[in-house]
Every structure is written in C-alpha cells, then in structure tokens.
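Replying to the earlier thread about multi-chain prediction with a worked example.

Input:
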Amino acid sequence: MGGDDAPESIVEGALLASELNVNLVLFGDETKINKLLNNRKAGHITIKHTEEEVSMSEKPISFLKKLKMTSLGLATKFSGDDLSHGTISAGHSGASVVAASKYLKRKDVRKPVLGTFIPTSENPVFLLDVGANVDTKAEDLLMFAKLGSEFYSFWSGKKNPTVGLLNIGSEKGKGDRESIKAYDLMDEASSEGLFNFVGNIEGRQVGGQGKEINVVVCDGFVGNVILKFAEGIAVSLMEMLASGLKESARSNIFIPLAKGGIKKSLKSVKKRLDYSEYGGAPLLGLKKPFFICHGSSNPKAIFNAIKHMKNLIMRQNGEKND
Amino acid sequence: MGGDDAPESIVEGALLASELNVNLVLFGDETKINKLLNNRKAGHITIKHTEEEVSMSEKPISFLKKLKMTSLGLATKFSGDDLSHGTISAGHSGASVVAASKYLKRKDVRKPVLGTFIPTSENPVFLLDVGANVDTKAEDLLMFAKLGSEFYSFWSGKKNPTVGLLNIGSEKGKGDRESIKAYDLMDEASSEGLFNFVGNIEGRQVGGQGKEINVVVCDGFVGNVILKFAEGIAVSLMEMLASGLKESARSNIFIPLAKGGIKKSLKSVKKRLDYSEYGGAPLLGLKKPFFICHGSSNPKAIFNAIKHMKNLIMRQNGEKND
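Result:
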C-alpha cells in the first residue's frame, strides 16, 4: 500500500466502499491498517500483511530488486493469479506499470498503455497514452485506439465511441512521420469496423472546445505533458481569478457579500477538473484491470476508483451496473 | 495583407501605431486600404499595392505557385532586400513560414522555429517550437535553446534567461530518445556559457506552477498541441465558471449585485491569457525579424506586434527602448 497519504486515505476510501457490495483485499502493514480501521465495521475488507513497500521517490534499480516482496508486487500478483478481479495502486506510477507488466497477462500489445480523462467539458476526453510509452510508432497508436475505444465502451456504456488522433492540424496528411502513418492505419481499421475513427483532433478539442469527442490517442510524451499542463493551468487560473476578485472587492462592496456564492461556483469548477471524480487512470492492454491513482489521492478518489473498477468488471462480464 | 479580419484590423492597428514613431509599409489592396484610412492622419504609413493574397484556407500547392505575387510574399521579400527592418503577418501561418524561409536569410539553422508566450503566470514561459518543425532531433532542440535564449534577452532585456527542456520527468535520463540526447547537448552548451540551462521542465511548470522559468524548448508537435490546448481550456474554464455563477445566483442574491466586480475579475484573467497582449509569435533563426500574428488578430494585437518588433529591433541594434 503506497501513496503520499497512505495508508490513511486508502483505508478511509476502502471503508467508504462498504456500500458498493465489493470484497477488498488491502496489501500493507496489518498493524497500521487495523489501527486505522479502529474497530469500525469492515466486513468487506481483508488484510494481507506485507513488510516491504515501494516509496514514492524510489529509483527503478532499487524497487526492481524487491518488487515481489512489496505490497504493490504482491497485490498485483494476487490478481495475476486470478485471486482478485483487479488491482488499484496509488503508489509509485513507474513501479505500478512495471508490476502490472510483470504479473498480469498481456493482450496482444507490446506494452501496457496509460489512459486518463481530461475533465474540461461535460463529456471529458479519454486521452491515451499519458506516459507509459514514448517513441511511439504508428502501429502503437492504432493499438491505443482499439484499447481506448474498448475501455470507453465498458466505462460509459456507450457503443461505438468516437476516436480521434491528436495532431497539429485537422486535415489528413498533417503531423509528424508516425501520425501521418497512423492516420491511414486508423482509417483502414475504422472502415473494417474495429472502432469509430473521426480523424485528426487538435489540442483545442482536448481542451473542451469544438465537436465532442470520446477517445483521443497520442504518444505518451505528448499525453503526459498535456495532462500535467492541464493540472498546472487549472491551478494558475484559479489563483489569477482569486486575486482578481480580491482586487475588485476594493471597489465593489457586494463582492464580499457574494463571497459564499462565488466560492461555490469556483468549487463546482474545481470539482469538474478534479481527477478524484474519475478515481484513477486505467492501465490498458492487460487481461486484468489495473488502475493507477494519483499519489495524493484522497478517500473520495480511492472510493471512486473502486466504484469505477467494479462497474468496469461488471460490464466486461456482461452484468448490469448498480 | 491577410488574416480573418484583414484589412480592417490591420489598418486600425497600424493607425494606433502612429504614437510609436515607426514607419509602416502596408502590402495589400490600395483602394481598400485608402478607403479604411478614410483621410485619417497616417503620415507613418506607406501603401504598396498588391493584387494577390494567400487566403486563410489555401493549400500549399496553390499558394506556392503565386507566393511571389502576393502581399505576403512581397512584404517578406521587401525585408529580405533590406528595404524594411522586419515583417509582420496575420495571414496563413503555413504560408508565412514558407515565405520567411524563402525570402529571408537564415542564421545557422536547418529551418526557422516558431516561439510564443504561454501566458499562465506573472512571468509567462516562452515556448518554442510551437509548430514549424516536427520530428525534431536533439540537435534541433539545442538550436531552439540558443535562439530562444537570445530572443528572450532582446525581448525582455533580461540577461542570461533560464532555459529548460520540456520533458515527462524532472530528472536527467527521463523522456524519449531525442530528449535524453538533448539534455546532454544542452548541459554541455550551458557549461560552455552558450545559455543558462536549468534542466528538464514538466508540463505543470509551463502551466504556471512551480519554479519560474523563462524559455522552454520542445518539438513543434508537442508545442503546437499545448498552445492550442491552452486556448481551449482557458475558454472552457471561463464557460464553466460563468455557468456556475449563474447557478449560484439563484441562492445568493448578492451575486447579481456583485456582477460588475466579478466581470472585471474575469476580464483581468482573460486579459492575462490574451495572446493579443504579446502581439505575435516570432519566427526565429532568420536574419530579419518576422512575427506571425493570430489570424483573428484585433487592432490591439497588431499594435502590440508592431510595438514589440520595434523594441526588439532597437535592442538588437543596441539602442534603448522608449
């Protein structure tokens, strides 16, 4: 059990999930977890004691050696051995990708792919890859499209979601070497009915402007930069706005009185942008679901990750969600 | 003379620039321009009549043939022939890059590079390349660093600005093939005193969060996607906020009364994010300055582009700015 606020946030999130009718297995320090549970009702939780963990700042050379003894390694292997339906990690992202690649069977892919929702509009874009792969080839982008489309369908229940290729222009023929090739591959796959390709997508659309789009594929370098830029700019805009309001309050006496309402609006925007609503970033291309949560996940984010994973597993098994 | 609002915005912007003590040569339809000038005092403006122009939606195959007869081609050649100090275009971006590459002498670079300010904090990041180059090599990124550092110094007056490499992690060794190589090249150039390299920069910092940084270099595909994403997300956030305030106004009677002040704050944020404050995106690596303005530039953006170009030219010539 890892993460910046582990095990507190994870235990609290797991407790919230009692209403979801799921069985949870927590991998971590049994004494610490029991202390946090503090005799609260947790019939849905089982604890597997582990001695080792991957710390958030650890380098590959150090975590690779001990991975199989850590909470991360053991939790993932547990799923790989068919003892659980899926894995959620709020620990070290790089180590999570390594553990998933090592202990879970792969679909027909070279490497797992990390996707995430970019929550900039009513219907957020599901962007992949956001950092598990770099130096991506056209064939990889094609595979991302298949995996993204499949995941989005299971996640949202929408059949045949729209899939776009992130590019620097909307017309065919735009982009770098691999994007130009990927366009043709995706177009061909789409005409064979593999997914619903709608062409090149520019940054503006991922930012919530223009035609609604469900899934957008890109190289992991580009996706990672966008994801982090989005986090940065959202905070910056809120800061600018707060300081602007403070400034305006000097000349408009109603602003302090309207404060509660303004705060509520800012909160609703923050909530929309909040990663924790989505729970976690799915690592795709594996035979068992694996979600990577933000290192600083709060209990709500952990709860949402559990909820989304349950729904995903049920849809994959053809069952109806609650 | 091109652009979505040409020639109106350009003529108005040129008129505003009378206070800058510059001589402007406008390339376009003389009759139309004179009609717009409408006998207003414009001693600083000369008109060169041109019959042809590149329309905003034109394909390379079509504009390449006639480029030398267009307002864009002739204005650029005018500068290349040392008849002007620099060129500003609000027309077709792709055609502008082509015209500049064709008519202006190049510094020791393979291709010109497009830079722009990402206005997310007090001290906006100057990001390059934002779309003139794709499939960038490590050597190109090194060149971007030199050009960006030099431009930033002239533009802001700051000596030895900080230069970072856009990447998916802050540590050395992170990133794709070319970024890993570029880190070493930039580090070496920095230790030789060519510019002030401060290491890898993540998307969050370009979004205004974290240590202040002046210049960030990246491949043109990545830069273009960020630039457009920033435009999209800024609009989306404002829309979300407006709808949130409308919602809150139902339960808080002071919000309608505070409306003026709130609007003012939103405006100040919009102004901060506004490309037109920066006037235009410089195309670097050429022996004459060339600015590409947004196709939808308003008169203020054109005015600011003229102002910044004047200051740049004066600094390059070792003169003091006004």
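The first strand of chain B starts at residue 24 and ends at 28.

Feel free to reuse this layout for your own posts.
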